[in-house]
Amino acid sequence: MNLHVDLCSYKAAEFAVTHWHYSKSMPASKTFKVGAWEDDRFIGVVIFSWGTQRFLGRMFGLEMTQCVELTRVALKSDHQAPVSRVLAIAIKFLKKHNPGIECIVSYADCDQNHHGGIYQACNFYYLGLVEQNGGTPRLKIRGKVMHGRTVGSKYGHQALDWIRSHVDPNAEKVFTKGKHKYAYPLSRRVREICEASKQEYPRRAASIGDDAAINQIAEGGSTPTAALH
Fold first, then answer.
1. What residues are paired with 36 via a beta bridge?
2. What pTM does this model have?
């Protein structure tokens, strides 16, 4: 099996997320997309995003442009390469093409029974459980729960009253169970902060592959596209 990892187009990334990620949606902010192929067969994407969370890097003393969030890992169920290997290569691409970024932050969603197995396999630092006691509310619209940024991007508004008036009269707020926060430092100063703040890894509910919940529908494929970002 020959694994090839390279930059990919928005179209290829969107296909992977739509078919193989539980969210079924692309991040609303600016993205950096790294695709993966096995024997020239497209198997998915790793997506990093930035631009909407102004304070993502605050605890590390970083500006918004110095910190990025790992927002999607969407791979087919029948891929052979370990998820951690694909992610590790994707991180190298991110660092190479964005030398000003000093930290990657990612979250494992407790609502999806995730504990961050792939981040543990890639030696991310665990920084604890965030958004507890109800957490950040999301909106349930037409039976689908969506993040506020996604709602705003799709409808132009996030206010519940507006959504009820113009989209779904039965829309409601939904509170999350919380998220496990992980960080991967790309500079010495951020690594020192992570070392001082790290906590013991949470126990995984299942295998690393299951915990990542990267696969949703194993169907179709995508012709490799030119490297774009």
1. 5, 44
2. 0.75
